[in-house]
Structure formats: C-alpha cells, structure tokens
Specification:
The protein has 76 residues and is mainly alpha-helical. It has 4 helices and 2 strands. The protein has a single domain, classed as Arc Repressor Mutant, subunit A (Orthogonal Bundle).
Length: 76
C-alpha cells in the first residue's frame, strides 16, 4: 500500500479523531482547522459526517493502523 499524503491540518484532524476521548463536531473542527481539510477527508472517504458529528470510517481506521502509525513521528 503506498504511503498517503495529508496536509498538516488533515493529519491533525485524523489524529484528534483517533484519540476519541471526546465527540468530534464538524463546527469545532471547521473553526480550528478550516473547512477545506475536513471536506477533503470526507470526499476521500477517511471520515464521515453524521448530523453534526465527525467519525473515522473503516478506510480512515485502516489508514491510521497502516500508513499513519506513529503519528508522533510524522509521515508523508
């Protein structure tokens, strides 16, 4: 599986969702990171929008488990 390229904002969103210690709301994510990174992740299928909540999809979880393991070390 090739390595994925994410912007810094997309990485931060995925990292925040992976922590999962609190609900993720679209308005909060848009306020913090802007709507373009979130829309990009939704369109590419890494996260889904259910009402006002944002969730990692199976594809997003696989990306985190595989290519994005070691978020603290950084990735391409």
């Amino acid at each position: 599986m090739p390595r994925l390229e994410f912007t810094e904002s997309e990485k931060a969103i995925l990292s925040d969702l992976a922590e999962g210690d609190k609900p993720a709301f679209a308005d909060n994510i848009n306020r913090e990171y802007g709507n373009l990174p979130l829309n990009s992740l939704i369109k590419s299928g890494y996260v889904s929008l259910a009402g006002t909540r944002i969730f990692l999809t199976d594809k997003g979880n696989r990306a985190l488990e595989g290519n994005l393991r070691g978020l603290e070390e950084g990735f391409v």
